User: What shape does this take?
Amino acid sequence: MVLGKRIRHARVAARLTLQQLAAAVGSTTSQLSLVENGRREPRLSLLTAIAEVLGTPVASLLSPEPPPDRRAELEIALERAQRGPLFASLGVTPVRPGRRLPMEALESLVALHAELDRRARAAIATPEEARRINTELRLDMQARGNYVPEIEAKAEEFVRSVGYTGGALTHHMVAQMAERLGFTIIHVDDLPHSTRTVTDLENGRIYLPPASIPGGYGLRSLALQAMAHRIFEHENPKSYGDFLRQRQELAYFTACCLVPRFAAVAFLEKQKAAKDLAMEDFRDAFGVTHHSAAQRFTNLATSHLGIPVHFIRANSDGALYRGYENDGVPLPADASGAIEGQPLCRKWAARAAFARRNRTTEFFQYTDTPAGTYWCSTQTGSSTDSEFSITLGVPFAHAKWFRGRETTRRAQSSCPDEACCRRPRTELATRWREQSWPSAKMHAYVLRPLPSGTFPGVDETEVYEFLQAHAPDS
Assistant: This one.
């Protein structure tokens, strides 16, 4: 279609009618019309003749550059939309994007088709689709050892550019990093409720909340995630899968900036040599959360320390919120391989840690599973709406590198065998099965569709009104 539009554009510029061009190249008007409308690919001999008559190189007609003008671009967009399955399902007559069709009508039709396509894509972004994509991303990272060297190098270069040499990345350094990208960080107390940050690309501003999110993202992390979109030159996500992949990429980059590889590996190697690896020390050395420290450890443990590892974030009700493993630990999964929302064994450290009274220190435990014995370190915490646990675990043979290996706490788990912890004892089931009627708590996410929009879950009207209110010229 682009080739056809280029030929038409060159023909009109040469002041030739379709009949005159056909006569000059020894073709027919109908054949050239099909070529110009993108419905037939010309033979090389015909294309060469057309280029010669129009006084333009063949390479210019075949250029991968965008269409020659805005109208050609719109005509191509309309043609493509009307050839797609979505338009075919409407059962309406296509509109021929000829020269007589006003530009205003062409603009409107293309915009309508784009909106139809957006709504259709949003409708198919089912929870099952999201779980499938999450599973693909997790397995892909598992195959990489949860390590992406190209992002590590990019982040390392970025933090070194502001003078970072080790320890915690300061807020001042983060502000300097923003300035290098042409942004100023501004803290506001009226961010749109559906956003963590908002970036004003026109005025070079990154808006952040006035304080960290309890149990969640710190201000440095929020600022770095906003910057990562620009560093990776992310475009508006075309699907929910694009959105999730972008989120994974910027989360990894942010972790690499907060805990840079060169400083982290030096610290961890020293601790390993002393057989004193501890997530609380790793956390405190770089001024990050326990969650960030444990997850960052999984990036570096296998590639730089030779330690296979698993990571679990679980809710207090035992549901697996996020997980990663390359050490063979049997994370619960559904038939599709998805792990999100699956119930963890009650005997695993990720759940057992909630039963203790003193939660200020790490909880250590060995657990015998069908896949072998694992040593785990678990720390509990709380967010604005729930409690959670963060677990870092390794196979028994690698426990020797960690503080807490001397624990005598040990549990046996036979999950996924339901007899392990999910099936009630026979005497209890006999006593109460016919004499009880529990009212189940309805989880809101069961009924809620996946968020839609250009940026899923974001109220664009609220965001644009916020930007307008804070713009320098408003």
